[in-house]
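seq:
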Amino acid sequence: GETWQPADAGRDRSYTWALAVDPGQPDRWWVSASTGPFAAHSRRNPEARIYAWENEWRDVTGPLDAMPYALAWSDGRLVAGLADGTILDVESAEPVAEVGPRLLALV
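struct:
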């Protein structure tokens, strides 16, 4: 407690969900975030983004149409599993695969 410091600079969304750490640089990490649980988990606009931490937060995807529920490393790149079944390459913000609507049953 007493030495804990918030790490919110550069991130305008406070409801965070998924977390990933760079396997080669453990001080570099990513988090998915939304404005709150209702936005994140409803079927409406999730107001979601993915942020990278390197001494402060930086938005790396811009607004997303579906909540990123999972972040993971695959083939040397960071990917996000979105609520709509899309697998997103975080660096390019481009879809790399579509899992399909059954993913919705998990969330």
